[in-house]
Design brief:
Number of helices: 12
Low-confidence stretches: 8-34, 37-42
Strand order of the largest sheet: 8-7-6-9-12
Structural class: alpha/beta
Length: 389
């Protein structure tokens, strides 16, 4: 039988075992949590709930009684789960806490170094890889130039070489797998690329399976914007937000109701290819007047203020359509002039608020490695029952 963490990762949501999601408010208040189910067939689901609470408790830890209260599981079920987690070195004691009666309560914490995941951001012109522990903390990073148009064999080999180099230097105790984030469109479920904007030759290439064969470990593939949004959602960002990524392209990652919204055909978030000028400049996607073409054109001319206004116009359309709570900005172009882009997009949203209250605009945390960190969460999040945020 595989290790406990691997079983959790394979079926953390419990859906494979006929599980259902329920939510409850903890007795002590705070963010609603997913409730546990006392059925043997949902052991992986329940373990994921406990692991996620251990993760969010941090170094201060959490007691077994608190775990039972927050999950809805019986104290006996929590004791069995935490005993297994301690056996596999995923959890350890973090001291004691005063009790209202009887002996002090033992508190437990996650052992972050017990597992790791690789996150890879495969951009159009560079390749960035990070190694993160179970807490999502980056423990190693490498970045090299890479041409996405150099062919499938060269790109797969480049990703594998960089991943292996990072692992050979850091030698982590265990690796769950590799998450790869790159421009879309693509099929997240099958790990197959479609006509990546500017690189139509990738259409139909099974990137996930090709990398899994080359590396000999699990691989997950998603759009760069979705991966970044997942990382932000797991980091307890707002339940409803849009992550706008402006780098070598322009796209959006959407989180609605705390879940990454990919759409029925995994095509949601193609924000950059909304046409806002019918007679505008041609775009690599084949249309004219796309917001991506207008934004990147302004950046190329050195007119960053116009790029920010164009991005703001698109963001205002998105806010008006989805009524989201926060707009987060990221990507290399944004991080090169963060204050200008935040101000430009915020101004556009304020101008369009129409008395309904403004939506805040912030720079997304993580900087240039935010997408790579989110890619690692493609492997980590299922372990904590957070596969969709």
């Amino acid at each position: 039988m595989p290790p406990l963490w691997q079983r959790c990762c394979q079926s953390a949501s419990g859906r494979e075992n006929g599980g259902v999601d329920r939510t409850k408010k903890s007795a002590s208040g705070g963010r609603p949590v997913t409730a546990g189910v006392n059925l043997l067939g949902l052991r992986s689901h329940n373990t994921a709930l406990v692991l996620d609470l251990l993760r969010t408790a941090g170094t201060e830890g959490i007691s077994r009684l608190e775990l039972a209260d927050r999950t809805g599981l019986t104290p006996q079920a929590v004791s069995k789960i935490t005993a297994r987690l301690r056996e596999e070195d995923l959890a350890t004691e973090a001291g004691h806490r005063a009790s209202t009666g009887g002996k002090p309560r033992t508190v437990l914490r996650l052992v972050p170094e017990a597992g790791h995941a690789l996150g890879v951001h495969l951009d159009r012109d560079e390749l960035r890889a990070v190694l993160v522990d179970l807490d999502g903390t980056v423990v190693g990073e490498r970045c090299v130039a890479m041409d996405l148009g150099s062919g499938a064999d060269a790109v797969v080999e480049g990703v594998a070489d960089l991943a292996e180099a990072l692992l050979s230097v850091l030698r982590p105790r265990s690796v769950l797998g590799v998450g790869v984030a790159l421009p879309g469109p693509l099929d997240h479920g099958r790990g197959v690329l479609h006509r990546v904007t500017g690189f139509p030759e990738w259409d139909g290439f099974p990137l996930r399976d090709a990398l899994a064969r080359r590396l000999g470990m699990p691989v997950a593939v998603d759009k760069d914007t979705n991966a970044a949004a997942l990382g932000l959602a797991v980091g307890d960002e707002a339940d409803s937000f849009a992550y706008l990524h402006l780098g070598t392209g322009l796209g959006a990652g959407l989180v609605i109701g705390g879940k990454v919204h990919r759409g029925a055909r995994t095509g949601a978030g193609e924000f950059g290819h909304q046409v806002i000028q019918l007679d505008g400049p041609p775009c690599d996607c084949g249309n004219r007047g796309c917001i991506e073409a207008l934004c990147l054109g302004a950046v190329t001319r050195g007119d960053t203020e116009t790029a920010a206004r164009v991005l703001g116009a698109g963001a205002a359309n998105l806010v008006g359509l989805l009524d989201i709570d926060v707009v987060l900005l990221g990507g290399r172009t944004v991080t090169a002039a963060p204050e200008l882009f935040v101000r430009g997009v915020q101004t556009a949203l304020d101008d369009r608020a129409q008395g309904n209250g403004t939506v805040p605009v912030r720079l997304a945390p993580g900087g240039t490695r935010g997408v790579a960190e989110g890619a690692a969460q493609l492997l980590l999040a299922p372990l904590f029952g957070r596969a969709d945020g």
